[in-house]
Specification:
Shape: elongated
Strand content: 5-15%
Protein name: glycerophosphodiester phosphodiesterase
Distance between the termini: 72 Å
Order of helices and strands: HEHEEEHEEH
Catalytic activity: a sn-glycero-3-phosphodiester + H2O = an alcohol + sn-glycerol 3-phosphate + H(+)
InterPro entries: GP_PDE_dom, PLC-like_Pdiesterase_TIM-brl
EC number: 3.1.4.46
Radius of gyration: 26 Å
Organism: Setaria viridis (Green bristlegrass)
Length: about 150
């Protein structure tokens, strides 16, 4: 019975090193002291509120943004939504008063731009109340916002 060829003798060392490193990490994690108590007034974990879902990665208030926020957050996450209504009274989540900054509505319905007075000011754009739910669902898609907020 012969051993491994000389060129393959060291091939198993990296695997053994990784296994030992994994075991050491698992042992350290099991012996870790309990973390400090949450620094909230009640001592419970902080409330996580996802406004618009995970909107840094997906378009704000899109189905994908909400699903990703639910799947990657704490168990008690609260999803916050700006509720808008279509002309047939169907409610949906969409941030902002007009639809043109976060959807493709201006490309799909270029002649449907309207002007409404909002708090005494004229606001131009595409508004959810000018469309039926079917028009929006079947034709319009979400996109990342064009405006950037800086602090």
């Amino acid at each position: 019975m012969q051993g491994a060829p000389p060129e393959q003798m060291g091939a198993s060392y990296p695997h053994m090193f990784l296994i030992l490193l994994l075991l050491h990490g698992a042992n350290a994690a099991s012996n870790a002291p309990a973390g400090p108590k949450w620094q909230t007034l009640s001592g419970r974990p902080p409330q996580v509120i996802a406004r618009g879902g995970f909107s840094g990665l997906f378009p704000d208030s899109s189905q994908y943004a909400y699903q990703f926020a639910l799947s990657t957050s704490l168990p008690d996450v609260v999803l916050f939504c700006d509720l808008q209504f279509s002309s047939d009274s169907t409610g949906f989540c969409k941030t902002g008063l007009t639809l043109d900054n976060s959807t493709t509505v201006s490309e799909i319905f270029p002649k449907m731009e309207k002007t409404y007075k909002v708090q005494g000011e004229d606001v131009h754009g595409w508004f959810s109340l000018d469309f039926t739910a079917d028009q929006l669902i079947q034709n319009v898609t979400c996109k990342q916002k064009r405006t950037i907020t800086t602090f």
